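REVIEWER CHECKLIST
Item 1: Sequence provided? yes
Item 2: Single chain? yes
Item 3: Sequence as submitted:
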Amino acid sequence: MIASPLCAVIIDRIAVSVGNRVITTSDLDREIRVTAFLNGVKPDFSAAGKRTTIDRMVEQKLIRNELESARYPTPAASEVEPELAEFQKKFFADDAAFQQTLAATGITEQDVKDELLWQRTLLLFIDVRFRPGVQVTDQEIQDYFAKTVTPAARLAHPGATAKLEDYRDQIEQTLIGQKVDQEMDRWLQAARKRTEVVYHQEAIQ
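Item 4: Structure as written out by the authors:
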């Protein structure tokens, strides 16, 4: 009689289906670990933490679909090398300490590079897709100055008079950023409506 050894098999379950693409539980686990590593915090594996992360990953899938279908420009993988080197220099004594922390966290250096590359890809997509169509009027700048900047300046510097021209460029960039975020949110909402997104709750508890 031949005896066969019993092997433990870990099944990678589907957490979310986004159209014809899927996000697995291992994808979710890795995203939580990498994000926490880069932010210098402990990974949050609570149900709420998983849901926040999975929602962000769904948005990533929707954006990746757009990137591929419309052929948007994407950064080269080599572009993250200086950023990674700066990150290591800032937070770790040497490469050995960096590698040790990666191992303890349960991720790889490639995982970190992939995340940094995605961050660059997302920023480039936003700049190309949404920023060109955003305009800020002089009236909007004046309103923001009167309602937001002036009260804050008075609290910070009692008795001093804030001048619009000293803040104009900063206000304009703030308002552009807000409008870009709004355009991005509207686009994501429309993309979700066009795409079947199915959450497998049992996999993300």
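Item 5: Key structural point noted by reviewer: The mean pLDDT is 92.
Item 6: Recommendation: ____
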